Amino acid sequence: MIESVREPDKQLSALMLDPNNHYSVPLSYGTVTVVTRDGERIQGVALNEDTYTIQMMTEEQSLRFFQKKDSKEVIHEHKSLMPAYSNDALSAVQLQDLIAYLETLRGAASGELKEGR
Amino acid sequence: MKRTRLVVLLLASLFLAGWPSHAQVSYERLMGAAKEPKNWLTYSGRYSGWRYSTLNQINTGNASQLTMQWAFQVSDLGQFETTALEVDGIIYGTGQNDRAFAIEARTGRAIWRYQRNLPEKLQPCCGMVNRGFAMLGDRLFMATLDAHVIALDAKTGNLLWDVTAADYRKAYTFTVAPLAVKNEVIVGVSGGEYGVRGFIDAYDPATGRRLWRFDTVPGPGEPGHETWTGDSWKTGGSPAWITGTYDPDLNLIYWPTGNPSPSNYAGERDGDNLYSNSMLALDADTGKLKWYYQFTPHDLYDYDATQIPVLIDADWEGQPRKLLIQANRNGFFYVLDRTNGKFLLGKPFGTVTWASAIGKDGKPIVNTTLKANPEGTRVCPGALGMTNWYSPSYNPETGLLYVATSTECDIFTSALQKYRAGHDFLGSVYVPDPVERPTGALKALDALTGAEKWSFPYFSNPNGGALSTSGGVVFGGDSDGNFIALDAKTGHDLWHVQLGAAVYSAAITFEVDGKQYVVIPCGSALFAFALR
Questions:
Q1: What pTM was estimated for this model as a whole?
Q2: Which listed residue (B201, B272, B299, B302) is catalytic?
């Protein structure tokens, strides 16, 4: 567990191979299901949440906002919606290359202005 | 001559009518703070640490109509942890980076501002915070991040005196709101993450002269020194970074202490490590120790006991007793006899794994299989505790203690770390348990049994405390920006407002011109609420 914090590339590869490994899934990427009063179940990832509200991105990539008091239930699951990449789909070398590529990505943080703008 | 006198009287009357009167806070007023609920004179509202008010204009029937009256921008970022004082129409508060201010309580308009010129290299463990003033006479007292104690003129904010308490370059800092008692200003030091040697000081409010010091780690020849091995006492931590309470009848100050240093490696500090994680009862005149009770001996998990000691008088097993109650960071709720420190009760108020119970002798029955090691051990509560420094509230009408709580458990590792002056001295890392997302709650505990009466869930683990009132309302704040009013008897949700930043303090309440206000710091502003 501590190793995964110290060596993020290991954490990243573990996440891709087994997104539902409890010690790899960051809690913020867990699955959230909102059950509305009429029984509709909306599943996705919570973008933000507090004691009273939840703002989520659904599996269909749409933004949905809920007041918890208007919902029947909010279910948090410590599992990822991302599919697992098995050894059949991705060889060890391909995985290593992919991780190396991902680690080169250093984009501007969300909302950050680029220099000169 | 007559004309001159008339002009003077006219000017004086205009001044008094058009401006909040300048306040004098005597020791007598502080002792009788409960009798003047229109003001908030000291950190916890009164010496007993209740953070409770008999005001009831805002009550369970109308709290849903609370409306913001004003906001005062401190103009600084970081955790806003102050408890403001309100005295005769003026609010006095401190802010991040040792700012301070006085504002008109009705309007939120500034009267003066103060900004301390701090050195560049400061190392408070947990933010550039300050928790507030103490007031005595016409002076305000502040303990600063660079380990000074200062006095300001309440009318102007001008600096009256400034004394050095300790060396900030060795990571001694102050974040505490001082306590004014009799003719003393009492402060406790921070720095338990840096291997300081903790202390509690009293200063003369007139001159800043230090009147006494109690070292929270006993030196050679002093009782308790034998609870440290080698030179470990020299860097033994045991800071005293939250405001204590006071019993005028017993003339005792109750001041809790924090973790031993290093907080998570105990290999070089065998023994109980007195007076870390303890409740100290000090003679108010001399600072001499009357008794102590240690909640977490030989701590491995950073369980500072720096939670407000709440003083109540009640029957205990058929006899009237002077009690001290505390919901401790280590997950146990305690009842002590405050005349002598005798342990009466210890009961968990959430999931505790570091100890199975508190024995009849008052000592924890420690789970020795959970010792932190280099691989990591999961322990509950986590390092930030089941609760923490943020204030609880005791309401004598419900007999309940309202406590903000966390479910966080942490993975602790432990390793030898050599002390270097001014550098962190933890002996470990700890991370939240990655499997369970920590949540929080505002819980109502029976003040004599610790039994949970109700629990209002917070989405995240909290940093904000509680305030309860005679209107049957308890106010809390969560870490996701909600300031919340609940029914004190049932925990039923009455009202909330989203303030846009984590709440890092507890509310106060007061009355001006017949209107009850509730004021909460949040983000970079102080917000005032009242009925429409």
A1: 0.91
A2: B302
